[in-house]
Amino acid sequence: MCGICGIIGGDRRQVEPATRAMMRAMIHRGPDDEGYEELPLGSDDAGTVAAFGFRRLAILDLSPAGHQPMFNERTGDCIVFNGEIYNFRQLRAELQADGARFHSSSDTEVLLQALSVWGEQAIGKLQGMYAFAFYQAATRRILFARDPLGIKPLYVARLADRLVFASEVRAVLASGLVSRDLDLGGISEMLAYGAVQDPHTVYRHIRSFPAGHIQWVDETTMADGDVYPLGRVWNFPERPIHDKQPRVVQNVRHLLRDAVLRHLVSDVPVGVFLSAGIDSTVIASFAREYTPRVTAFTVGFGSVHGEDEVALAAETAKALGVKHVALELDASNMPEKWHDWLEGMDSPSVDGFNTYVVSGQLAGEGVIVGLSGLGADELFGGYATFTRAPRWSRLLNALKFVPPGIRRAAVAACGAVAAPPVLVEKLADLVAGDTSVAGVARALRRSLSDSRIGAMGLTPARLGLAPDYLEHEDSRIVPALDGDAFNTVARIEASHYMRDTLLRDTDAVSMRHSLEVRVPFLDLPLVEYVSALPGLLKRGPVSKALLRQAGDSVLSTRITSRPKTGFTLPIGDWMRGPMREPSEAAIATLADQPFIDAAEVRRTWNAFLADKRSMHWSRPLSLVVLGSYLR
């Protein structure tokens, strides 16, 4: 995993210094090596130029043969690539059978050769996480692509005479070529959902390249001020797979084994993040089958939380027969880590602090690659939204015959009987919003309510957003698989919370520590199979029933029957205590912004300070994070 960046067009005198500035801004993503190349885009070598920059974190083929930007010596094609192609050995064998010759053992060279031979059709063969820019020398044009689920980031700024791209928002800004004009739509989404939603960022000219899409750019499109349309190359399955339960369990078990095996491919040691939960335990179990010397790492929060999962994880590791390393957090340096997390944030989010401190602990132990259980909850149904969204949707649709005024009056009555204000706001949004299962699932992920954000002066109509503070376009809608409620929730969770919060945060904060996090549950064959199964085959008396059944051959009954665990750090207490001063400084910064109502910002913060039961800590944290980010 690495950091890529580049510039297409613009003043040639600016291109190299601006690209190298972006490279310097991403040293943490690739401390092992760097590379820079300029490539001609037009028929005239003195015309439009494309500059590719790269920072390398060496994981596959640690030799100089893995250097990027990488050229195909036969065609002159060039690539900068961030990610891992887990089936690269199979693709390599297929290419060699057609006469291709290789000079390294890296997946980058396989990807480069595949694109040179098969063109954009190569993308349909890839299994992995990736974002890349590929220069096709014969046509002097560039192909951008991002993996189906958005595991790897790619940000693009399209300006009048140039295109700037990078793996991080802050790297794009470091070029000095893109203005810091704010995007109030992205800011409103951050307040609504706790993280900016694709394709927005908080900056007007910077957009997140959409997951599962490709796009070609050449000299003509740059000169015309336009680009080729985005092409979708992947979406969730549209047709269900019907099979008997025993066969389904067997298939999932087989796909899980293959996924973990592929994700273990590395020329550096690979560790497994082990908690007390079923997700990481399944990964550790299959990893042990292939790598007897696998090490499981657990971070203990006892000193800062009062309880943690170390004892249960140690018990699991002993049962599996794997080496276990427990790392305890130091309560005394939490304020320093809090400051570092906020200062280094690439995109504002309320969800990344836990991952930031865990990544720091693992990197401190020399871990470079770690396997995470991220994605299991979305795929197999580990969230409360899987039961709550269909239930609320049925209830709200049954009440549709009740006049809107009466519904609003009923919600107001909740407030009159001393119901928590946050609950009243949530009910008001549900009653007035989209009552489909998808709409309710999105609403249940909300941070600040419509009324709270509106009171700050950020209304969706003013910002050109849909009423739920998302884009109007259908690009955010995924096939519902015949209206199956379970799969509808699964796809909404994967396309919003997982992609725009969990994956984005995990990439950004782990790479701050030069740590690559891999997610075997998002292995494409596994995702495509499980996503096509009817919800009836995945539901059960406990959460993630199908995953538990698939893992029962390698896990003890005690582990598979363990309920979903997990906790969060006492962030609310910290914001009222040791982190109050920097938090209030961030609140002051946000209140000073001309686009927001200062009185409402302070009212929300003061209500949080006055009564810890008034709202979940994530709501004031969204204000603190945004204020800190805009400093």
Walk me through what this model shows.
The strands form 3 sheets. A 6-stranded antiparallel β-sheet has the order 2-3-1-9-8-10. The protein has a 6-stranded antiparallel β-sheet with strand order 4-5-6-7-11-12. It contains 27 helices and 17 strands. It has 3 domains: 2-232, Aminohydrolase, N-terminal nucleophile (Ntn) domain (Glutamine Phosphoribosylpyrophosphate, subunit 1, domain 1, 4-Layer Sandwich), CATH 3.60.20.10; 245-332 and 342-381 and 488-560, Rossmann fold (3-Layer(aba) Sandwich), CATH 3.40.50.620; 570-631, no CATH class. By secondary structure, it is α+β, with helices and mostly antiparallel strands. The longest helix is centred in the last third of the chain and has 27 residues, at 485-511. Helix 2 packs across helix 3, helix 7 crosses helix 8 and helix 14 crosses helix 17.
